[in-house]
């Protein structure tokens, strides 16, 4: 049972700022911006709460606020919004793990994992993750707050985070390496203010957030001299690891196979197998037959090409005619449109359990992402209700579920190598990868492939682990997976902590 106890404003009232004064000549008939629509870059509201996690009573303090990003001259150029949860009955904060959490996009805030996965409050959805009304919140009895304090960070122009002026160039924030650089500085300031330098630290990121935290692992070590115990990648991107041509085309097939199995689009002998018993067969074909065949391109002989197409059709639920017509290279867009075309449905991109309805059955890609509209349906009301009514953060700022962060500079993305280098330098650092089998944007087999390529030497593989779940990109929205995934997070955090007196050395 949640209990609201206290609300305190610290470091200045939330969103309070001196009324903007018109320049000479005034605003004419225009009103100056409302103070409550301008972010106070250094402010916070503190509230007290309690809940039960795994049968254990947990009282905690929640802080919702903003902290500055400074330029080279020490002037604030932006405010980064965050929510921070700290368990109250911890006597030794030095040994208490701190989890720093990001989502992705780029351009989305940390709302998804905060109220869908690891935070103390959970949005109201059904057991498979679909929206229900009335919108609202309930206790998350699977939250990891029992074992770690958590801060959820919203990069600039996501959530309530904003620049101090439209004159601040977006290039300071909107790019792979710019993003990593300023957020590492921000994390260092947060850890210093909160007195958490002694604590074991973990980064968790989802989707593009995995690119972010992979780069942050090395940036924190090299530029802030902050060393981590763990990095968790939820539905990871490619992390700058190249896979063009045959590898790009081949690696999609196991995801196609999982989705076809879910929608019962396979032959009876395959359909009767359990998913995790079926997929290794497809993975083996992908690596040992499909990838070599695609490598031969137009010089693959017709008989072999036909045999490969027949197997792809058997595993994917897509016809041999379509596969041959696309030279064995079926795009994800086409797959989402094609799999259930004869039934009048498309399947979702980020979670292919979701079905959509298009204007017409013809075409090569769906009209919209069925899963994303569903998630926005449930998450958007919930985060507004939660921040304002429960965390007492009052503002008229627009909460950006998707903020404008374009153009985004994707050049020089070497975040996978950054993560490898951070792990090589830091024997304490462990990696956990979590994937949903039905995620078509950051699919599970590409996540495995990235992990395999991360360390060519094989010297670090004892600190690398992958896990799969029977849902999509946000695998935690499925009730069963939420319980399993959070338990696995607890185990990972526990196992990544060194034994007392154990040194960080090879």
UniProtKB/TrEMBL annotation:
Keywords: Carboxypeptidase, Hydrolase, Protease, Signal. It holds the Pfam family Peptidase_S10. GO terms for molecular function: serine-type carboxypeptidase activity. InterPro entries: AB_hydrolase_fold, Peptidase_S10. Residues 1-20 form the signal peptide. GO terms for biological process: proteolysis. This is Carboxypeptidase. It comes from Deminuibacter soli. The lineage of its organism: Bacteria, Pseudomonadati, Bacteroidota, Chitinophagia, Chitinophagales.
